[in-house]
Amino acid sequence: MSSPDVASGPARQAPARQRAIGQVLIAAYAVFAVAAGARAFAQIVTKLDEAPVAYLLSAVAAAVYLVATLAFRRPGRRAFRVALAACLFELVGVLGVGAWTFLDPDLFADATVWSHFGQGYGFVPLVLPFVGLAWLRHVEPETRPTR
Question: Do 98 and 133 meet the contact criterion of CB atoms below 8 Å apart?
Fold first, then answer.
C-alpha cells in the first residue's frame, strides 16, 4: 500500500514535463531579450534621430524580456511577483503599442518589437505574455504569493 503523499504513474512525470516547458519558455524570453536588445542597441547608437519612439520602445521591450527571463529562472515569491509584473507589463505593452501603431503610424518611422502586435516577429510577442502568465498559474505552489 502506498502512502497518499507519494506520487505514482503519470503524476511522477508531470514535474519533469513542467520543468521542460518552463525551460522552453525561459529560452524564448532569453532569445527575445537578446534579439530585441541587440537590435535596439544598434538602432539607438546609429540612428536614434530617425525613429526615437520606436527604438526606445524596442529597448524597453528588451529590458522587460530580460527581467522576465531572470525572474522565471529564480524560485521564490519575489521572483514570482517580478515575473508576473513583467508579463503583465509586456501584455499591456504589446497590446498598447500594437494598437498605437495602427492608430498613429506616423509616430513610428520604423517598427518596434511590439509594432502591429509583434507582426514582424511572427506575432510571438503577442503570444508570449499569455504563455508566461499561463505558466505562472502552474508553477510550484511554494513559489506562489500567499494571500
Answer: no
User: How many Å apart are CA 25 and CA 96, to the nearest integer?
Assistant: 23
pLDDT digits (tens, 9 = 90+) for 26-36: 999 999 999 99
pLDDT, one tens digit per residue, over 76-106 is 889 999 999 999 999 999 999 999 999 988 8
Contact 27, 73 (CB under 8 A): no
Amino acid at 32: F
DSSP state of 134: H
Q: Are 78 and 132 in contact (CB under 8 A)?
A: no
| Helix (H/G/I), strand (E/B), else coil: 1 | coil
Q: Alpha-carbon distance 19 to 143, whole Å? A: 14
pLDDT of residue 115: 93
